[in-house]
Write a structure and sequence with these properties.
globular
């Protein structure tokens, strides 16, 4: 799916108790754990930590600031939008306890803003056709199938 930029989307309105955090090696293991749990329902797969971390940080399109990490009051990862510099959202995941509380929407608003600031023409992502909740979210944000 694709979102054309620039867009006049609102800035993120983070759920109460959520803040952005720097994505780095210190938070990578808990973020990976949250990502694995989010994908455990069969809508994707995440390799073991060492393979995931090597693939992520070794990719030529990896940039730390394009991994948008939201954490709760205790610093526990609540949501992650892992993006490539080409304007692609590789992974979007929200911890189960934070779903349906605008966190996924807020993460995407932040992604759209960051890529708009970089002057990219659009943001793309892939989604399973049977993932109705994700499709509904993406469509509500003006994303279209390409």
């Amino acid at each position: 799916m694709r979102k054309n930029l620039p867009c006049n989307e609102q800035r993120p309105l983070w759920p109460l108790g959520i803040r952005l955090a720097t994505f780095d090696a210190g938070i990578a293991r808990p973020a990976h754990k949250m990502l694995k749990a989010a994908y455990s329902g069969g809508v994707g797969a995440v390799p073991c930590f060492s393979e995931w971390w090597e693939n992520l940080t070794g990719d030529e399109e990896y940039e730390q600031e394009l991994c948008v990490l939201a954490v709760d009051r205790d610093g526990v990862p609540a949501g992650l939008a892992q993006c490539w510099s080409s304007g692609f959202v590789k992974d979007l995941a929200v911890a189960e306890i934070w779903r349906r509380r605008t966190l996924g929407r807020s993460l995407l608003y932040e992604v759209f803003h960051r890529f708009t600031q970089r002057g990219l023409p659009h943001v793309d992502l892939k989604v399973h056709g049977d993932n109705l909740a994700a499709l509904g979210l993406y469509r509500s944000l003006g994303m279209t199938v390409v």
